[in-house]
Design a protein that fits this description.
The structure is a homodimer. By secondary structure, chain A is an all-alpha fold. Helix content of chain A is 76%, strand content 0%. The radius of gyration of chain A is 19 Å and the shape is elongated. The structure holds a DNA duplex.
DNA sequence: GTCTATAGTGCGATAGAC
DNA sequence: GTCTATCGCACTATAGAC
């Protein structure tokens, strides 16, 4: 799957998740017509992500959000009951997309080495499409309440577990040679995170997502002394 | 040098930098007696780091800082002219310590492989001692003005350049086999950053700084196929 | 050199008109 | 379903007592 095909697929998945979130938050959302609600929710989410990436969620006032989204203060409060709830909804939206796409793209592959490659590539494509969300989620994770914080930690560990499983499978089948699957998975994740956290650095150096994916795969395969395919 | 020796040395270096900052900011600081000023500045800096690590610099109000530090609002404003300036002073303090210690610990080593090991270990020790500062600096980097942001970027790139230089030297001497020193240095940096950004993860898994240093060195040496010493 | 008191601003949130 | 107007509060920053 090319990056453009991936992007199209992720966008469709995203819209579905937005509808799900509307349906599940009907008690907080005063709007009844789904078409109107989903359109405005999408606007609110993307504007919040844009502003938060510029100056942080705490620093973004709801007046900023009102101005940039074109919705009045009153209208905004038809979609959430507090600024904190808005943050929680956005976090949930991204976590679901991450889980859905990773499972769908990686789950069915049999060979451990191919699985590792697909997981790295899918994660990078995902963070490329959802760059603002990942950066937001990463940076705002400590500003949320304990319940939401726990969800963020679980989501992070679940992604890491996927890499641990792949590495252990490859190790047990003699395809990889490595001593510590947990730390190795953690190192892979650190490299994947760098792609969206230090985006300015890679952009400045004119490194494309496919180039970076190639590098990470090569670097990891070299470290775990993966047998040539 | 053991971690405890390193810690003692870093603390002394830190106090000196605090004095330097006092002397350089005499126009903003109303206090005239150096002994009093440095004691209070140290208190203000460490309290700010503590509170910011809990909930972020923006979210921390100066009332919070006043309460936790034991200094009144008025007293606080004798040490800086605005909240923004306080942030800038703290950023400067950490950048200097990073630069001083890395140069001092790594500069004099001749062998590229030993240099790589020392650089990784020193950086991890440094972030361990200055954990709160590094996390703070990492998280608040986008909430500062353009001038300060540029300084943060330069500091980050300078550290990365140190790794690029080591890798290129090792490559040209046939000690390392790698295709892309820039991306490799960037990957090393990502792993080093993970140590202080995702501290909860390593703490939960009971991984010590020396264990992590050993893993990173092994992982990187394996990836660059470093010849055994 | 440090305090308390307060000025002035902008925030999150809501009520009620349309 | 969306708007404008406004409330009460917490913030940064400062002035003046001690």
């Amino acid at each position: 799957m090319t990056f453009n095909e991936f992007k199209k697929m992720a966008m469709i998945s995203m819209e579905e998740i937005c509808s799900d979130i509307f349906r599940e938050n009907k008690k907080s959302i005063k709007i009844k017509k789904e078409a109107v609600a989903v359109r405005n929710l999408t606007n609110i989410f993307s504007t919040t992500l844009k502003l938060s990436n510029e100056k942080g969620f705490q620093t973004m006032s709801l007046r900023d959000l009102s101005r940039s989204s074109g919705l009045s203060m009153g209208a905004l409060y038809s979609y959430f009951t507090s600024k904190e709830e808005l943050l929680a909804m956005i976090q949930e939206q991204g976590r679901r997309l991450t889980r859905n796409i990773l499972t769908q793209q990686v789950g069915h592959i049999a060979d451990a080495k191919e699985k590792l490659r697909a997981a790295v590539r899918t994660h990078l494509y995902l963070t490329e499409v959802m760059q603002e969300w990942f950066y937001f989620s990463y940076m705002e994770a400590k500003n949320i309440d304990k319940v939401e914080q726990k969800k963020a930690i679980e989501s992070e560990l679940a992604t890491e577990q996927m890499f641990i499983d792949i590495l252990e499978e490859g190790k047990s089948k003699g395809m990889f040679s490595l001593s510590d699957p947990v730390l190795t998975a953690s190192a892979i994740k650190a490299m994947l995170q760098d792609w969206y956290v230090k985006r300015w650095k890679y952009h400045r150096r004119r490194i494309s997502v496919d180039q970076y994916a190639g590098f990470v795969i090569g670097f990891v395969e070299s470290a775990v002394r993966a047998v040539k395919a």
